[in-house]
C-alpha cells in the first residue's frame, strides 16, 4: 500500500520506505490498516458526493471469509448528474449472523454513516435465499417497511448461476467432472497428511514450471492456498 501511494505522489515517496526518517517506514500491519481505512473513507465521500440528492438502489450479498467470519458486501447503484448509471462498492461489514434483521440493521448503519436514507432506496437486489427474499420477515420485506418504493429484484447474476448449475447437471460429462472434483477435495481435505503431500507436489510443479520459463515470478505470484469446496449458489 505504501509503495502504491509513493508511486503516485512524490512527496509521499520522499518520506516512506527507504527514504523514511529513522525507522518510520509505515509498514506495520496497524499502520497499513489505518491507511486503508483513510483511503476507504475518501472513496466513500467521493461516492456520496456523486450521488447527491439522487435516489439509489442497493445490492447486497454475504459470504464467509477465510477466518470463518460472515462478511456482507454492499454495492450502490444510481444515476449521476450526467444521466449515467453508476455502480460503486460502498462497504464491507462483518455481521454476527445472516438473519434478515441483523443484515437490515447493518445496512442502515452503513447508509447513515454515509448520510444516505433508507427512504431513498428505489430498488434492492439479493440472491434467492429465504432470509433475503422472504415475503414477511425477509430482508426485502424489512426494507420495504421503511422504503415502500424499494422494489426487490432477484439478482440476475445469481439467476444465471442457478440456470448454469441446473443445465450442467443434465450434461453427464460436466456432472461427472464436478462429482469427481468434490470427491478429490473431500479425500484430500479430510487428512492433513494428504493435504501436505498435495501442497508439496504443487510446490514442486511450480518450481519446475518456473525453471522452464512457463511461469513468471514476482511478489504475490504463484501463491498456494487451502482447497475450497465447490458449492451451489442460492
TrEMBL record:
UniProt-listed SUPFAM superfamilies: Ribonuclease H-like
Record's compositionally biased regions (Polar residues): 219-234
InterPro entries: DUF4371, RNaseH-like_sf
Domain DUF4371: 2-138
Location of region: Disordered: 212-234
Pfam families referenced in this protein's UniProt entry, alphabetically: DUF4371
PANTHER family: OS05G0311600 PROTEIN, PTHR45749
Protein name: TTF-type zinc finger protein with HAT dimerization domain
Amino acid at each position: 500500500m505504501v509503495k502504491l501511494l509513493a508511486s503516485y505522489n512524490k512527496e509521499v515517496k520522499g518520506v516512506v520506505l527507504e527514504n523514511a526518517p529513522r525507522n518510520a517506514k509505515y509498514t506495520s500491519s496497524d499502520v497499513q490498516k489505518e491507511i486503508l481505512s483513510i483511503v476507504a473513507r475518501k472513496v466513500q465521500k467521493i461516492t456520496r458526493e456523486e450521488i447527491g440528492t439522487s435516489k439509489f438502489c442497493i445490492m447486497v450479498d454475504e459470504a464467509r471469509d477465510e477466518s470463518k467470519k460472515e462478511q456482507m458486501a454492499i454495492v450502490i447503484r444510481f444515476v449521476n448528474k450526467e444521466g449515467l448509471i453508476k455502480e460503486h462498492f460502498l462497504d464491507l461489514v462483518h455481521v454476527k449472523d445472516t438473519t434478515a434483521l441483523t443484515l437490515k440493521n447493518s445496512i442502515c448503519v452503513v447508509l447513515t454513516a454515509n448520510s444516505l436514507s433508507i427512504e431513498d432506496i428505489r430498488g434492492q437486489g439479493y440472491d434467492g435465499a429465504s432470509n433475503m427474499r422472504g415475503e414477511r420477515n425477509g430482508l426485502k420485506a424489512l426494507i420495504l417497511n421503511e422504503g415502500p418504493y424499494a422494489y426487490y429484484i432477484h439478482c440476475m447474476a445469481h439467476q444465471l448461476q442457478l440456470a448454469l448449475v441446473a443445465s450442467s447437471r443434465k450434461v453427464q460429462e460436466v456432472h461427472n467432472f464436478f462429482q469427481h472434483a468434490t470427491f478429490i477435495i473431500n479425500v484430500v481435505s479430510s487428512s492433513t497428511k494428504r493435504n501436505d503431500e498435495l501442497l508439496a507436489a504443487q510446490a514442486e510443479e511450480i518450481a519446475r514450471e518456473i525453471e522452464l520459463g512457463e511461469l513468471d515470478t514476482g511478489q504475490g505470484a504463484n501463491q498456494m492456498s487451502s482447497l475450497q469446496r465447490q458449492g451451489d449458489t442460492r
